[in-house]
Amino acid sequence: MKQAIGIVVKKDEKAQKKAVELEAWLKKKGVKVIFADNFDSPLPASDFFCIIVLGGDGTFLSAARLIGSRDIPLMGIKFGEVGFLAETTENDLYKAVRALLDGRFSVEERMCLNVSVIRKEAEIASVDVLNDVVINKSALSRLAYSAVYINASYLTTFKADGLIVGTPTGSTAYSLAAGGPVVHPTVPGIILTPICPFTLTNRPLIVADTSEIEIRLEGDPTDIALTFDGQEGMDIDSRDRIVVKKSAHSMKMITFSDQNYFNVLKARLMWSGGKP
Active-site residue numbers? Predict the structure, then answer.
């Protein structure tokens, strides 16, 4: 294998120890290994076969930020609490890596969203997210009034603690906790989920992935923030227009034949009383 395998690992003693063991194991098989030491530094210029992520969903999202639009697939190994992005458990780590080296895997493409923040007609931020972008208020501020336009047509103003705009992959993240639907990753849609809406008729909504969503804050929006995949954020106010649409780039995820999405879903949500 001429290409390198990257390793991104969470800041956890158990995961860090396993990463060192994995590095030694791979090197014995003649595989070049490169560690991403921290999430603030870009990955070194190298041709990566893939990146193995040891951690939970937060670590996986950090790895996704690291690679940006580069065509590098991610393979997630779950070290942490309930998560959906890392499909393989730590107990199956070496089984999965053997399958990877033998070429017994497939690559799924996961839709991302591009989020632009426009202030006085100037774009002040443009970020791609794998899970979601969230408008939320501080603990002491009043309701956030989020006016939503779909393809330039006014939809409604969500009066809530905030608003989540997510991908199908992100449907099992913050959106699920806020009462949003579980959407299969291959379904072409964008999810809008209000957080604790003041009006009971404000319900989650799925729109086509071809939609352009524009959000404007109304009322007196103080202490309102915009967060991208829960990894970074910025303050916003009534001067800003937030435009969300399907990104030109997708995230590639390595999966194996024995990893069925619904089996992973059942295991994480503890459905079916533990039946296989």
Answer: 57
